[in-house]
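Forum: Protein Structure Q&A
Topic: Joint prediction for protein chains with partners

I've read a bunch of threads here and the consensus seems to be that you should model interacting components together rather than docking separate models afterwards. I'd like to see that in practice. Below is the full input, 637 residues plus whatever partners are listed. Could one of the regulars post the assembled result?
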Amino acid sequence: MLTLPKKELIKFVIFAVVVLTMPVWLTPFGASYPGLLQKFAIYGLLAVGFNILFGLTGYLSFGHAAFLGVGSYAAVWSFKLLTMNAIPAVVFAVILSGLFALAIGYLSLRRSGIYFSILTLAFAQMSYNLAYSVLTPITNGETGLQLTLQDPRVLDLAFSEREAGLPIVTLFGIDMAGYGGFYFSAVLLIAGFFIAQKITTSPFGLVLKGIKSNQNRMNYTGVNTRPYTLAAFVISGMYAGLAGGLLAVTDPLAGAERMQWTASGELVLMTILGGVGTMFGPVLGAWIMKYLENIFSAFNENVLHGFFAFLPDNLESVVVLIASKFVGEGWHLTLGLMFVFVVVFLPGGLMEGYRRFVNRFFNGGKAKAEAPDKQTQPAE
Amino acid sequence: MATSDHNVVLHVADVHMRFGGLHALADIDLEVEEGKTHAIIGPNGAGKSTLLNVCVGRLFPTSGAVVFDGQVITGKKPHEINQAGVARVFQTPEIFPELSVLDNVMAPAFAKRDGAFKLNFFSNMHKEGEIREEARHFINDVGMTAKLDTHAGALSRGDKRRLELAMCLIQHPRLLLLDEPTAGMSRHDTNTTIELLRKIKERGMTKIIIEHDMHVVFSLADKISVLAQGRIIAEGAPDEVRADPRVKEAYLGSEQE
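Posted by a regular:
Agreed with the consensus. Here's the joint model:
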């Protein structure tokens, strides 16, 4: 039941080692601090889950941020009402986002292709607007949902006295704000990766790939495609909910902007950037995007002046003027350029780039052994 | 319609199909007997593919019913009709272009074993030895063992057809519908396919075949229905149909210049 083919097992071990040693090998890149490491693990998990839907069935959801938001709200409510322990928070996040995905998926999957994408986008934007307005008692609107000193926290307070100041999220005593939060997220990322591998290599996964490849044939082959796509949608929604829950675990507040369409779009970008339908691609895309966001958005004109100081003064100010548009607030410009570059020259994402590289330099240009799904288009 | 002692697998009863003003199928009454190969011939636009579409649930007839194995299947969804035991080879091959030949054939086998829907996460493809062996067997039957790991999208048109045939055969359907199974094949491949279809017939599989190639029709069919302008104009054993003057006028005459 918990076995994998040898090749996948090797991938799994490599992945687990890479993730758990991140604090070490990211040090030279200046990225080895808890805040960013947590983001790597959490957004990696989000991308792995998204790939189960987009990579396997080809259905491009543009509304996964809604599940991220639901997960965060569920987790924060678990902190407020029950306990500051991280376990119930992520459990509720997964369950609630799963139910939410079931409802949205049930309606959206009546259409495919671009109509499906638009429907999911519409539902996510609706959720975002509801969170901002009507649902203020649940979401605390613009301010965002936060912990307060008056929270009931029935489970915690049944066993101990209320302390002064806001409590912190823990996992049986381990503080979840620092490295503890990273390792907790990392273990869940590795577990999520394993489940994704199980799905990809199972007959269920084969049916999902068949649906992406030719849904018509699947129907005439005796497969009822809708429950399959719905199952994939709910599973990937639960991954997103888990990621949202973990965001709240590492930093216990939830805001509506987490559900906005830009967040969904970012998820699509990271998956395509890394390589749709591959195991490592989406995670790699998420890491690279979060890393670059971190670097580029921290740059400002002073840093650029320092960087280009070797140039003559006139030229320096021109170069800095141009470059400054691509950093800080404008880092999305860099992201946009990078995305265009990848889609035009490497439609299979960075994983395809890696494969081409390996083929050229190690196989002497021989035909590739493994040929993954190269398509980035949604299902017909 | 003449009834016989034989077991009728498929009965198309008084089916009409109208598309706006076009009467695509008119008063079609057809019985397909167990174990027989029933050919449907007719000029282009006669309604042959429409008839198959009605049988597999792609189209819903304006009136009339299709009875398969004693059960009315009109109004059922394509996957339900397939689960009941009807498989179809399409005029333009419907395969999974991104998957390997082996996976293409394994997928229908899972659909047959697991039903229309099963959350089969825990098994993995490497442990499905039985289905893998069966798939290899059927791929061998259509002569494509050498291309086991090829992406189906990269196959030639004739190979795609043979692959689709294997995908249908692995389901052991009670009724196999073949929409021009040899179109686009070389003479040699056509003959191999005829041989294969003969072999299947020996196993007792019932077939409906639509075909333009008269060589194929007369080497396989037990019974032929001739369709012209949405009506069955003649029906009978191959020799009777060949001799029928109306058929010659409507179809054979224009084909065998």
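Chain B touches chain A through 40 residues (CB under 8 Å).
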